[in-house]
């Protein structure tokens, strides 16, 4: 192995470590993909995780300045096809290998930059934020899974977007208290935190159900090498969604709903058996 290849492989291993440290759910999902997809998807997750950390975590630092530097380094890595930041080097390599659209990266960074400001979201900003923060991440992964098959990508594009949208809206419901108390954000348009009622919650849940249905229609058409991993993510979020639906609005404001690790493992086993029986 030459030294450039070793550097790239080591950079991807850094993104794998980041994924394992930050998300047990995502790590489980990646492990059920075909092995050839593991490191590329880890590289995408490492990139989006690092950007998200800047805007959500480093409160004692100038987050705007840190993010602008990260953004500059991202585009420099894409243009030069190298970065001494291993996360960005791994990401740029995957972008070029799989033809990930620059527009997806632009949209993602724009949404992350939106999180630097405490705000309430109108419908237009809400849709733009969800597209950039979640839908395009699904589209990046879909580029990897389709491996250059443009017709397949075009056919599955809308379903991938809807699945990402469902996941993000569930995150918003789960984190509504912390988003408001720690960051001053209410993502759902027209929703006031102090007036978050069961009726408001049910309206949001109906929107999520529609996204789930559209997303599942795409899962069953994915390449078999990618299908189980995406299906596991779907099952995990569906389980989380069911738990949230069973609670009244005031409970959602008072606690963060979680899926325990042992339940995640059971979901993995159930997904595996469904996959083997070709039911998904």
UniProtKB/TrEMBL annotation:
<dbReference type="InterPro" id="IPR008949">
    <property type="entry name" value="Isoprenoid_synthase_dom_sf"/>
</dbReference>
<dbReference type="InterPro" id="IPR033904">
    <property type="entry name" value="Trans_IPPS_HH"/>
</dbReference>
<dbReference type="InterPro" id="IPR002060">
    <property type="entry name" value="Squ/phyt_synthse"/>
</dbReference>
<keyword id="KW-0808">Transferase</keyword>
<dbReference type="InterPro" id="IPR044843">
    <property type="entry name" value="Trans_IPPS_bact-type"/>
</dbReference>
<protein>
    <submittedName>
        <fullName>Phytoene synthase</fullName>
    </submittedName>
</protein>
<dbReference type="InterPro" id="IPR019845">
    <property type="entry name" value="Squalene/phytoene_synthase_CS"/>
</dbReference>
<dbReference type="Pfam" id="PF00494">
    <property type="entry name" value="SQS_PSY"/>
</dbReference>
